[in-house]
Amino acid sequence: MPDLLLTPGYFLYEDPKERQIMKPYAPLGILYLCSHLRQKGFGVDVFDTTFSSRDLLFKHLRTEKPSILGIYANLMTRPNVVEILGVAREAGWTTIVGGPEPGAYALEYLQSGADFVVFGEGEITMEELLLALRDRSSNAFTKVAGVAYLDDNGMMQQTAPRGQIADLDQQPWPARDAIDIRRYVQTWRDHHGKGSINFITARGCPYKCNWCSHQVFGQSHRRRNPHMVVDEVEWLLKEYTPEMVWISDDVFTIHHGWLRDYASEMRRRGLRVPFECISRADRLNAEMLDLLAELGCFRIWIGSESGSQRLLDAMDRGVKVEQVQKAVAMSRERGIESGMFLMWGYEGEDLEDIEATIKHVSKSKPDIFFTTVSYPIKGTPYYNRISDRLIQLQPWGKSSDRELKIKGRHTQKYYSYADKLLRDEVALARLTEDSPQTGSATVAELQESIRASRAGLLSSYTEIET
Ligand code: B12
Ligand code: SF4
């Protein structure tokens, strides 16, 4: 029986969207916890739910001798985690939740069956908590920083804040051997012709985009030694032979000096591997993009959100619309595809802002773009700003922050029109530029669809969520 069983609580085969996409990546947070705790002498297993099922996990929890169960929770997995907590508690497990969401909803998770909520980075807190829990009769856990629990009167108690790990280079690599990592790589290969694997080079982002969650790492930014990252990359390539990698940092090109050192070490060792990563337009320039291309970057995701500078400023995005357009163009010049994230429905968005976004994307012509209707993540300035207008339609444990209704906002129908309009306008811009055969059936069809979406947008303008 291990001291601790960790699980990500995410079931890929239950996620219809992800079943179509089939681009799974290993849960690095859990694997970092696992390697740290193993190094400290604890027995830790991971039940990776990703390719498994709810039934198998529940069977395991009901038939194994119970010890301590640690569950990762984020905005999307809350209903799973709440259900797992119920089963685990009933079967006699001591339960701990951590990850990006629980810190913002500590009381709710505790009332849903968690014995402890861990805030922020979990490594040191879990090390101390596991030690404190060895003697169940003592209340040593009350001295462990970075946790919340319910006292005998059912009141939430929160201990002192936990500091962050000062030197990430002292930490072991994620315990990839604790799960079937080859299955992830192979799933990619089977569905996309290329096996892929993920790693991180840093923790935390110092920017302040006000809808983005900083629950785990705060505003800190800590980087790993570039040579040690290259050690990990070299080992990953040898051990798992992926055809590409994904660098899962928040902003990979944030530190230009670091990227120069990383690139020179990769060059020195003759390493080059196709990869994708995320960045910000203001952290990209010709030199950085040259380095990315040299390193093998084939796609860069650039946060864009809106084509309206007024809205970007309201979001504290710290980026200019023109910087995004330039970054996309410069990426294209170097043969790097660009992907954009866009957001509808941010506070104060009006028709002219939607039109500005459409113009922006049509002009930039990224290779891919994804849109979402903005949703408030608890703990963010955006959430706090609109909290008095949020309505929870379903019980907390069965829903997520994505399902919160925002009073005073346009309806889903309105954003569907905005989305359709955007897609058609961008398709038209591509079509007329690539093969300017105005008058062709496709162009005419697109123009008709655009007319209909604009009319729909206008007619649904006055429909407001109440
Ligand atoms: C990579 C990534 C993804 C990948 C996930 C693939 C993968 N397996 O890595 C993809 C693109 C699929 C993705 C999707 C989504 N993501 Co995402 N993602 C990230 C990102 C950039 C990195 C994750 C990572 O590897 N972190 C590094 C590890 C070391 O950190 P960590 O996981 O937080 O783990 C530490 C602590 O949380 C804690 N901990 C973690 N687990 C546990 C468990 C226990 C028991 C304990 C005690 C502690 C603990 O200790 C760990 C080590 O210190 C994070 C932002 C970030 N920098 O973390 C966003 C982030 C996690 N994603 C976020 C969101 C919103 C999403 C989506 C909902 C987006 C969407 N609209 O669809 C989806 C949800 C998908 C799903 N079904 O779960 C938010 C979550 C906010 C929240 N409150 O939940 C984040 C924080 C981004 C942000 N800043 O807002 N994401
Ligand atoms: S959206 Fe990106 S750049 Fe902005 S704060 Fe979040 S991680 Fe940082």
Word description of this protein:
The structure is a single chain. The chain has 466 residues and is α/β, with parallel strands linked by helices. It is 40% helix and 15% strand. It contains 16 helices and 17 strands. The protein has helices at residues 16-21, 28-39, 54-63, 78-90, 106-111, 123-132, 181-192, 226-240, 256-268, 286-295, 309-314, 321-333, 351-364, 381-386, 412-434, 441-459; strands spanning 4-7, 44-46, 68-72, 94-98, 116-118, 147-150, 156-158, 196-199, 202-203, 222-223, 244-247, 275-279, 297-305, 337-344, 368-373, 390-391, 405-406. Strand 14, helix 13 (351-364) and strand 15 form a beta-alpha-beta unit. The chain is globular. The site of cobalamin has 37 residues, from helix 2, strand 3, strand 4 and helix 6.
Summarize the structure.
This protein is α/β, with parallel strands linked by helices and 466 residues long. The chain has 16 helices and 17 strands.
Question: Descriptors for this entry?
Answer:
466 residues, alpha/beta, 7-stranded mixed beta sheet, 6-stranded parallel beta sheet, 16 helices, binds cobalamin, binds iron/sulfur cluster
